[in-house]
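Support reply, case 0932

Customer input (verbatim):
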Amino acid sequence: MIRREAKRPKKGGEKDRERGSSERERERSGSQSGLTMRPRPIGRNPHELYYLRMQRTREKTDKMEKSKAMRKLRVCVATCNRADYSKLAPIMFGIKANPDEFELEVVVLGSHLIDDYGNTFRMIEQDDFDIGSKLHTIVRGEDEAAMVESVGLALVKLPDVLHRLRPDVLVVHGDRFDALALATAAALMNIRILHLEGGEVSGTIDDSIRHAISKLAHYHACCTRTAEQHLIAMCEDHTRILLAGCPSYDKLLAAHHRDDYMDIIRNWLGDNVKEHDYIVALQHPVTTDIKNSVKIYELMLDALISFNKRTLVLFPNIDAGSKEMVRVMRKKGVEQHPNFRAVKHVPFEQFIQLVCHAGAMIGNSSCGVREAGAFGTPVINLGSRQTGRETGENVLHVRDADTQNKIYHALELQFGKRYPCSKIYGDGNAVPRIMKFLQAIDLDEPLQKTFCFPPIREWDISQDIDHILETQGALAIDLGGTNLRVAIVSMRGKIVKKYSQGNPKTYEARIELILKMCAEAVFDAVHLNCRILGVGVSTGGRVNPQEGVILHSTKLIQEWSSIDIRTPISDALHLPVWVDNDGNCAALAEKKFGHGKGVENFVTIITGTGIGGGIIQHNELIHGSTFCAAELGHIMVSLDGPECMCGSRGCIEAYASGMALQKEAKRLHDEELLEVEGMVDLKKAESVGAIHLINAARLGNSKAGAVLRTAGMALGVGIVNILHVVNPSLVILSGVLAAHYQAPVQQVIGQRALTSAQRIQVLTSDLEEPALLGAASMVLDYTTRRIY
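Our regenerated output:
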């Protein structure tokens, strides 16, 4: 019996080689026998075989691409609260409108499912979306620990849902802690993430969460050019960033012109309310400063109650601190107040109408700085929650909202105004752009995202100690009647180096000396590791700070009227320049570095060669319509008093300035009534000044004492007039005579001021160089000085 060996299955390559070999043998045998051959089959030589294989590969690739083209992109949209649904809903409608391209899955979690916040998942169902999963992820408590526990609970529940749905792309919005849990779970489960509204800046813990989600996300759809640049600066791949605009703008720009808007307004606010005659209030807690945000909320409600306008108050979100805010609202009786309507939720389409036609919107919601700008609705933004957001001119910031009066004043400024419509955050075409962006996602690309770090040269990988130790500062110039002084001032108010020269008598010589001293200071600043941010100029006389022009100078500085001081200094040093009156600078110095720090309303009075000062009202320096506000030295306290240098009579300066005291000292000296026992002998040729008068009074000279009492009385009466006009909470005396006037002024206030003003405190300044520090403060605060 003959046994046959079992044949080993041949591999593809062996079959090809065997088939090619047999064909070549047949071709050789046909050639040797001289038989007539049939046409040779195409692709049977090595070159033709190669092209045959390439054709088969192309057919296989085309088949795969066709199969891929037929496959829908499975997109999962996860929404956590009413706010992010207003941004996600337009995208969801766009996906649903393209069933051949996309398959939509909807996951609902967070405050959507809480009764206290309106059970807002129902509006998703009303929009005819099938909710694939509802996840109860909120741990109640409304404090920091509850937020952390909520993130943890979401991370426990999300893996099962994502594993069941198996989405190709997860769409996540914004900066909520729920969204961070979504992005974390999806990234760890190798699911691509599209993040909406990344790259924005708002100044609270939301920033950290938003940027963390951006780093986990594979694709980005941002709203503004600045946000796009921020993402690129965060090393995100620019090819995966879409500048789309805000999706909610697609709906609000198309739908805010509705004929039935008055029906909506009356439905929420009552029948007797008018267009542009009500307020929408929406304030959320700031999780990094809960105590202060609750205080601001209470002050806002107090201001709204006093403002006495119909107001729609929306409940705050579920962040830590919201429970305390609701408690404050109920303590104030807002829900029962006839002017207020307190609601947990308003459908977005109706909310658009309410914001569009409101007299003002107040609070710290992103809607105020984003959507409200599309209608030109005036907005008062309270606190730090939206710090850094791009805003239109319709937004008035009250960053330090520490008093009811400040918020009330902001309401007075904003209520009823209309502003040009702003489209910073979108043009109404975001959704079509996002749809195209989703269609372009290549699922065959590697899932691992890459970061586009800037190139780093090997010799630049270490830091330079000089850069670390560099100090930021300002160049301060003080133009006095006798001396011209320049100083380098650090950010903390330390005078790093000071220069002093006599003040020239002519304009040309003075400008030349200023530029020379400034150039020297700038040169020295480099060696002192101090980077100069700008130049501040303090000078006597009436100044237009907006134009940098000295309008009228004091008689002590000659050839110094109608002078543009800003232009020559800025042109020579290539730095921004600020200019103001020396009295105003002293007030600014106290506001930043002295007793006025944190005080909303105070007055500073300089008692030196002359009398001057500045008034801070609602944290703002008062200049007046013609820039002569706070000419405190020229308040008249007598109709027939001594002549003043201004040409009038009876001014404070004619009684209490250093020059006035010097004049009286010389009169007494000439009459031989100044010297008393214990004083240093004064020769007739020696210059007699105010200090000699003060010393004589201290040693018992009744004549000198009478002069000082009159001067103190005049200054005190003038300050009482100031208290009755602007009602500050603090008076600060500055200058060389301040210590001598403090007690007399406080006494006059106690005797002559109204009862409500008698307890206002008078302090002497602790600042050694108020004019220089005030000039520097204009530079150091230039980014925030004009913001509440």
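We compared this against your earlier run and they match. Two observations from our side: DSSP finds 26 helices and 26 strands in the chain. The two ends are 109 Å apart (CA to CA). Please reopen the case if you see a mismatch on your end.
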